[in-house]
Amino acid sequence: MENVAAGGSSRVAMPPPNTGKLITILAIDGGGIRGIIPGVILAYLESQLQELDGKDARIADYFDLIAGTSTGGLVTAMLAAPNKDKRPFYAAKDIVPFYREHSPKIFPQSGGPFAGVINLAKMLKGPKYDGEYLHKLIKGLLGGTRLHDTLTAVVIPTFDIKRLQPVIFSSYETKSRPHLDAELADICISTSAAPTFLPAHTFKNKDAQNNEREFNLIDGGIAANNPTLVAIGEVTKQVVMKHEDLFPIKPMEYGRFLVISLGTGNAKNEEKYNAKMAAKWGLLSWLTHNNSTPIVEAYNQASADMVDLHNFVVFKALHSDDKYLRIQDDTLTGSLASVDIATKENLEGLVKVGERLLEKPTSRINLDKGVYEPIEKGGTNKEALRRFAKILSDERRFRQSNVK
């Protein structure tokens, strides 16, 4: 696996947004092992950037901000954390192999005819998985890397179960709120701590006055399973506060935003639940039903769809809908829709889902029907990504010409 980018530190960092025409944002949803799907999409996007700018090109070279929730937070760290040569720790093409290798160890499967009973017994006593392998893996990969060390700005949502409020770890805030400048490993472990699946995570971090702040965190999906709106909001706040990388951009210049938002798939078209079923459910059924967790699925999908709808309406109103791309698949069925069935067969199936998604037409959510529908004359997702790659490459070149 090629973790060190060819060419090492020779590649010049992307100049800040105030030297260009756009503010570029990449956002990645939560979804457990379904992080393979955006992994496939990102590998294709990066390959198109490499065709334009050479084999050393990496996703982090083109986005001013990368946001990720839960498994998307882990992907964000993989793309933006520096290796020893101060280049992204992982190339996008290495994301899928990472999930193939480690998912079965993060989510070990209980076999045999009593697997369902065993899993239920585990969930009655605590989380389904102990998280030990995941924690050791992330700590080993990221070491002592802190939020301020990332090669481009990142935003990773979590939720503090003690304070009952979201905690948004943002690179932009590390100077003004130094208690948020935590180790990236702790942030990734926290944002992926999905209720009923993985244990909550607690750690302490110090502020500028050496005062300790304690965090008691769970899955960022509780706050924002689709982190796109959080990312846009964070940039907007920094524009208002006249952040050095964004000043003198004006607060209302939303037409500058270029956003790629990647979902991790869902099973909407399967229609596996209905009101007649849910009317009979007690606590246990809402927590576990046919290898799913209906209450978590409902909350996560509701928030993700509302974010997508909001973004589409705003970009349309600003005549900038050509700068907003949401790639999502709502046709998953059976174990493909799970967040943790990490069998070899299922992981390979998710890779194929991502590959087919590239060939599907670009789409947007229709809340009346609850499904994604093709955009007229929008082309395929693969074609849209090629178009966005060209825009990103041109923006990078334009900024570099302005700082010479």
UniProtKB/TrEMBL annotation:
Domain PNPLA: 26-232
EC numbers: 3.1.1.-
Protein name (database record): Patatin
Family classification: Belongs to the patatin family.
GO MF term list: monoacylglycerol lipase activity; phospholipase activity
Main function: Lipolytic acyl hydrolase (LAH).
One of the Pfam families matching this protein, by short name: Patatin
Motif GXSXG: where in chain: 68-72
Free-text comment on this protein's domains from its UniProt entry: The nitrogen atoms of the two glycine residues in the GGXR motif define the oxyanion hole, and stabilize the oxyanion that forms during the nucleophilic attack by the catalytic serine during substrate cleavage.
Motif DGA/G: where in chain: 219-221
Organism: Capsicum annuum
Residues spanned by motif GXGXXG: 30-35
Keywords: Hydrolase, Lipid degradation, Lipid metabolism, Plant defense
EC category: hydrolase
Residue numbers annotated as active site: 70, 219
